[in-house]
Amino acid sequence: MIDARPVGYVIGLLVAALGVTMFAPLLADLVAGNDHWPVFLESAILTILVGGLVALACQNGVSEGLSIRQTFLLTTLVWLALPLFGSLPFILGGSSLSFTDAFFEAMSGLTTTGSTVIVGIETLPEGLKLWRSIMQWLGGIGIIVVAMVFLPELRVGGMQIFRSEAFDTMGKILPRAAEISSKISVIYVAITLACALCYTATGMSSFDAITHAMTTVATGGFANYDTSFAAFGSGPQYVASVFMLLSALPFVRYVQLISGGGASPLFLDSQIRTFFVVIFALVTVMTLWVWQFFDGFSERGFREAFFNVTSIMTGTGYASANYMLWGPFAVTMFFFIGLIGGCAGSTACSVKVFRYQLLFASIKAQIRRIHSPHGVFTPRYQGRRVGDDVLNSVMAFFVAFMVSIGVVGVALALTGLDFITAISGAATALANVGPGLGNEIGPAGNFAGLNDTAKWILAMAMLVGRLEIMAVFTILSWNFWRG
Predict the structure, then answer these.
(1) How far apart are CA 269 and CA 276, in angstroms?
(2) Residue pair 430/465 in contact by the 8 Å Cβ criterion
(3) Measured between alpha carbons, how far is 250 from 184 in angstroms, rounded to an integer?
(4) Which of 307, 334, 338 has the alpha carbon at shortest distance from 230?
(5) What is the pLDDT of residues 118-175, one digit of tens each?
(6) For residues 394 and 155, what is the distance between their CA atoms, to the nearest angstrom?
(7) CB burial readout 296-314, b (16+ within 10 A) else e
(8) What is the rounded CA–CA span in Å between residue 422 and residue 409?
(9) Which of 77, 91, 95, 288 has the highest count of CB atoms within 10 angstroms of its CB?
């Protein structure tokens, strides 16, 4: 049996901390003169009370550290508990969402997916708008810590190679994960503030600048308007594009930068170089394609291509135009762009660049073995030999990811959704991108019209995708519970 008390203790503390953050939207409603603030007071008191009681009840079982099984359990259950309490302001508030819709919105927020079931976002009280942004901002920093500390330890999806990149190669600069996490938090706040200032400088209101800065740096995609970034001009769109790119880079490289390691790690990291090469190629191709829809060679065509490609590839999910109207080629491109993702150790989601690098390195080595059967060819990453355990983990991830898209797609189709909606909905949920394809869940639509069963399937898919799939699958296995 697993001693769940240490897990309950940590979850209780995190739930209570989530309740504390509810006072920020409460103040936003008070400042705006809304009578919606009691909703956040009730939600905060209930959340802090339950979280505190759970932590106190489990305090006696706290030990020096968590076992591997307890860590697996913690990383999964915490992403179920937080959306559950994060949904309270939607249930009790002016949005009048059902429990299903409220949980979907909270799960989408905390996993930084960005899919929404709310119609008329601009009519929401300021508190709820801010709460949507806070959830994504917390989810963004949360997934960095998970990717830095927990997932490498659990050896899922090849993340153990990133533990090597984050800790082993940093020498004596930052030997402890706790110190790295604290520095990442400072950098995260600094980038968010810089983004908000840039938004303000380009004409956004202070409130919009703060909320959109949170969802930009978290690569979450929640906006304060149904039309997303089409509500803003060219300035905010360029600012968003730049900060989405910055947020999709490994935050540990920023830590090295401010710790005296210089800028060389940013330029020497093959993952970062590959990420920018892919972005450049995709933006170039998309720009050439969309110019036919924007009066020839125009700045707008480049801007729309740059913004939307960056948004989808980083998993942010903002939209400045309905790219469903750009023809079959663009629609197909956007589907596959969403399956690439950013860098490991960033707020970006989806498969991530380093896994494709390892996949292609493995394919290259295998081709060379076939060509020269007596040769010894070993896949390498950053000039270092990649072990079989890492390669096996990456291959298992790819298989699990593709199979999951198929299973979730079939499950959604069984609820009555058409093929495009079902398969793109499955992909966007597992990759935590946000918008799907089609008229209903595409960039010009939302998920409000889906049935409740489909929403629960998608909410669970968001959780599975955010935790790199294998972490969730492991606790569903019989052997895990047998010990």
Answers:
(1) 11
(2) yes
(3) 10
(4) 307
(5) 999 999 999 999 999 999 999 998 887 777 666 676 667 767 665 555 544 444 434 4
(6) 10
(7) eeeebbbbbbbbbbbbbbb
(8) 5
(9) 95
